[in-house]
User: Which sequence fits this backbone?
């Protein structure tokens, strides 16, 4: 079976609509998704470690452009995912843009699984990169998720990874991360396995 694209045109679908169907304004859904991604991006871009949040209580007014909600979003995002949070937003933004263009993403189950796995691995990659002195959080660049990878490395080697070893770990994790992001964003194609002729005929028989 030839490779099938991960995007399908909403205008040209050969599958007949069911008798009872709910019409979803595809473009509106895409715009809403883009709006949510934009909100998170603004929160991250205007984040300040001194802003009040669930993990830091202060009477100081938040400097975040979105106020206290934006400060909470940014703080929780960087605490959990670290710098990897920026990569987490890429696939949803591309999916939303596809919907705005009336290109409905297909195989969303595969996409979501690849997105989750790639997001986790991205945090692992950043966890092995030395944080600069200006990084204000006690966790590494990979956040809480990335800490799991460094803990596994300590269990495997018996000591904290040295700079050369850390870079090696990051390179090893980066390869499957890029592959999973490629699948999640739908930039390539996916070849689905073909069933044997006997099984296909059996399914078609009444």
Assistant:
């Amino acid at each position: 079976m030839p490779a099938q694209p991960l995007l399908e045109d909403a205008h040209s679908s050969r599958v007949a609509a069911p008798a009872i169907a709910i019409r979803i304004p595809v473009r509106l859904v895409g715009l809403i998704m883009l709006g949510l991604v934009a909100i998170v991006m603004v929160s991250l871009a205007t984040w300040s470690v001194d802003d009040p949040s669930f993990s830091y209580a202060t009477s100081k007014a938040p400097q975040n452009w979105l106020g206290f909600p934006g400060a909470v979003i940014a703080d929780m995002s960087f605490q959990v995912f670290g710098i990897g949070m920026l990569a987490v937003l890429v696939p949803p933004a591309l999916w939303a843009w596809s919907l705005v263009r009336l290109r409905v993403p297909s195989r969303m189950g595969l996409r979501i699984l690849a997105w989750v796995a790639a997001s986790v691995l991205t945090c692992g990659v950043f966890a092995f990169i030395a944080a600069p002195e200006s990084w204000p959080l006690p966790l590494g660049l990979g956040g809480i998720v990335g800490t799991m990878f460094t803990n596994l490395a300590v269990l495997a080697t018996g000591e904290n990874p040295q700079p050369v070893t850390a870079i090696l770990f990051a390179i090893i994790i980066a390869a499957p991360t890029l592959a999973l992001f490629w699948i999640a964003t739908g930039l390539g194609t996916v070849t689905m396995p073909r069933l044997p002729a006997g099984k296909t005929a059996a399914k078609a028989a009444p």
Remarks:
- The longest helix spans residues 163-185.
- The chain is about 55% helix and 5% strand.
- Strands lie at 4-5, 7-9, 103-105, 189-190.
- The radius of gyration is 22 Å.
